[in-house]
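Tokens for chain A. Residues wanted.
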């Protein structure tokens, strides 16, 4: 008889840093640690308005915070419906998000809101209240279940119209929740051992013990749950086995090795640090 244990591993995702294109953007991302950027706009070009509802380049102003480029977005009027909004498609994993932006209040202020499409307008709310350019970071995180869409919205004022400028709006994935299903045998000594060295760069060794001959599959997955490589897929004799993973060419970050032997599965977390 086997017992199924489910557990969650909360971990930092650092894959997104590698996709940032310039030193300027990188410096902002590093400000909140090693995480990934789900959404970024600095309102510097026509392309920064694509996907936005209610935003046009005529709203660009030559006025932006330090390192925010030359332009920012001016919005005015305002009511209880968003002045501008952006829909973000569903995420592949349960994720915790934070919201960052720069803002400048030109009236009674406004807000930048990030919420789940299904629970709008609950979510993260940043109030733009200072009359000089100020960097804002949400004090809380937003849990976004996988498969949920997100909505980002800008409000100028509330019931009373107002005006504000915003720039450098970013959504960071600060944590990804990966659920691993782990079947633990109650008899025998089937065991996947922790890889060594760990953290590693770029080679590591993964050992496992088979109490009897089994068809074995040993695979590596990234934090998004995508398969990276297959290290073994064959029938193996009983006893201790070792497989080496050469991770040259893969980005730094958390990986999982998953061993399946017959109908038994075990998973270990590994950290590649360059
Ligand atoms: Ca800008």
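Reply:
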């Amino acid at each position: 008889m086997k017992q199924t244990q489910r557990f969650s591993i909360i971990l930092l995702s650092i894959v997104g840093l590698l996709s940032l294109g310039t030193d300027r953007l990188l410096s902002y991302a590093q400000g909140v640690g090693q995480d990934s950027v789900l959404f970024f706009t600095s309102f510097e070009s026509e392309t920064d308005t694509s996907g936005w509802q209610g935003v046009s380049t005529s709203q660009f102003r030559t006025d932006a915070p330090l390192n925010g480029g030359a332009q920012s977005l001016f919005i005015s009027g305002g009511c209880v419906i968003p002045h501008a909004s952006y829909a973000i498609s569903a995420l592949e994993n349960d994720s915790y998000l934070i919201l960052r932006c720069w803002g400048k209040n030109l009236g009674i202020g406004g807000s930048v809101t990030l919420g789940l499409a299904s629970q709008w307008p609950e979510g993260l709310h940043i109030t733009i209240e200072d009359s000089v350019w100020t960097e804002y970071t949400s004090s809380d995180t937003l849990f976004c279940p996988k498969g949920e869409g997100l909505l980002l919205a800008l409000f100028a004022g509330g019931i009373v119209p107002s005006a504000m400028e915003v720039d450098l709006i970013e959504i960071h994935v600060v944590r990804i929740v990966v659920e691993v299903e782990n079947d633990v045998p109650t008899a025998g000594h089937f065991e996947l051992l922790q890889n060594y060295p760990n953290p590693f760069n770029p080679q590591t060794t993964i050992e496992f013990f088979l109490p009897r001959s089994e068809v074995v599959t040993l695979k590596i997955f990234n934090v998004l749950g995508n398969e990276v490589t297959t290290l073994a897929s064959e029938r193996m004799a009983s006893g201790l086995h070792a497989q080496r993973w050469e991770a040259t060419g893969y980005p730094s970050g958390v990986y999982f090795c998953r061993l399946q032997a017959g109908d038994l599965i075990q998973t270990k977390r590994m950290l590649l640090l360059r």
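The domain at 188-272 is CATH 2.60.40.1930 (Immunoglobulin-like). The radius of gyration is 24 Å.
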